[in-house]
């Protein structure tokens, strides 16, 4: 079935897929259906051998301005528990291929959390990041208190979460929340450029490297080093490792196949 709230370009560039959030009238508010469609699309692209990197964007005005409040306002605690809306987020976290968020305009609440769920963030100068849930009597629930704190530190995370204040793209860059800031008309192209740098490399090595970096947030240093070493050794069973090292010695560009 054709999704209603996202647009999928499986080959936007060689080896690069583009998924666009598409609820422009609602500033791409993240309702249950959109998140389910996004989960299914990302899982399918993760299994597509023709795709090595995924770019996720909204539109110039908003990446996503938050969750769909109208959908949640009348629900009880048990409704929320039974709906288990964050299971889709857990599934997205398991995507093995790199996902780059291309952000313009608002990335607020769930939108900020979705951007942080991605592996890298490229932002246009107009981008604004924030967790304003406190202003409507709740708090972040899709990782905002956890990923934001790990990214920017306790002091700024506390201020953003407890006051609901936004930060600019330039401030987000300075505190390490995002990778780069570009003029708004270039934010998507810059995300594709970053994706292209990754897409030319060994898909297996990229996936294992991503997995290892993420493990740093969930383990002690000793456990993380053990996990890193295991993945390093495993890559010596790949054709890509043989090709990469042989190409280096022969002073030529390697041709990686993901095997």
Summarize the structure.
The protein has 259 residues and is α/β, with parallel strands linked by helices. It is built from twelve helices and ten strands.
Provide a descriptive summary of the structure in words.
- With 259 residues, this protein is α/β, with parallel strands linked by helices.
- It is built from twelve helices and ten strands.
- The strands form two sheets. It has a six-stranded mixed beta sheet with strand order 1-2-3-5-7-10, with helices on both faces. Strands 4-6-8-9 form a four-stranded mixed beta sheet.
- A hairpin with a 2-residue loop joins strand 1 and strand 2 (16-21).
Keyword list:
259 residues, alpha/beta, 2-enoyl-CoA Hydratase, Chain A, domain 1, Lyase 2-enoyl-coa Hydratase, Chain  A, domain 2, 2 domains
Secondary structure layout:
Elements: E1 6-13, E2 16-21, H1 32-46, E3 53-57, E4 62-64, H2 69-72, H3 77-83, H4 87-93, E5 99-103, E6 106-108, H5 110-117, E7 120-124, E8 128-130, H6 144-152, H7 154-163, E9 166-168, H8 169-174, E10 180-182, H9 187-199, H10 203-215, H11 221-234, H12 239-250
Parallel strand pairs: 2-3, 3-5, 4-6, 5-7, 6-8, 7-10
Antiparallel strand pairs: 1-2, 8-9
Strand content: 15-25%
- Any low-confidence stretches, pLDDT <50, length ≥5? none
Return the CATH class of the largest domain.
Answer: Alpha Beta
Q: Can you say what the CATH homologous superfamily of the largest domain is?
A: 2-enoyl-CoA Hydratase, Chain A, domain 1
String of helices and strands: EEHEEHHHEEHEEHHEHEHHHH
Count of DSSP E strands? 10
Give the overall silhouette.
globular
Span from first to last CA? 31 Å
Number of domains: 2
> How many whole angstroms does the radius of gyration measure?
19 Å
CATH structural architecture of the largest domain:
Alpha-Beta Complex
